[in-house]
Design brief:
The protein has about 140 residues and is of the alpha+beta class. It has a single domain, classed as Nuclear Transport Factor 2, Chain: A. The protein is about 30% helix and about 35% strand. The protein has a five-stranded mixed beta sheet with strand order 1-5-4-3-2. The longest helix has 16 residues.
């Protein structure tokens, strides 16, 4: 099945539309079973792979930021790669990676790209601005001099 860059962009658009509806079932549909990623948890080289890994990541964020929703600011496709720049907002109402709820409103900027084959996501390399996120949760990120 040959797909166009516009069809690839539609896959990524749909992914985030469903994520904003908190529908994690979309991962089973849009992600290949052998999906791999370049998403790493802070302080770990362990990747988050497969539809189940992505569901777990979404559950982690929604437990901490139950009103988490976003806005895709830029979506660019070339070949079978779709690059994205996105901002997501939420309220820190649950534990997040050992940080107790603060009630702070946060904005998480993220960017990266997805690789699409036959209408499914087979790989992604994504990064979020975790330093800024932790600062918004009141964590002192200054380095002693």
């Amino acid at each position: 099945m040959k797909t166009t860059t516009e069809e690839h962009k539609a896959v990524v658009r749909r992914l985030y539309e469903e994520i904003d509806k908190q529908n994690s079932d979309v991962f089973d549909e849009l992600f290949a079973d052998d999906y791999t990623t370049g998403i790493y948890r802070a302080g770990s080289q362990e990747t988050i792979d497969g539809p189940a890994g992505m569901k777990n990541l979404m559950a982690e964020y929604l437990a901490a930021f139950p009103d988490f929703t976003g806005n895709s600011l830029e979506l660019i496709a070339e070949g079978n790669r779709v690059a994205i720049f996105r901002e997501e907002e939420g309220t820190h109402e649950g534990d997040f990676r050992g940080i107790s709820p603060t009630g702070n409103t946060i904005t998480l900027e993220s960017s990266g790209y997805y690789v699409i084959e036959d209408g499914q996501i087979v790989h992604a390399h994504l990064r979020g601005n975790m330093l800024n996120l932790f600062k918004q949760m009141g964590i002192d990120m200054s380095v002693p001099r």
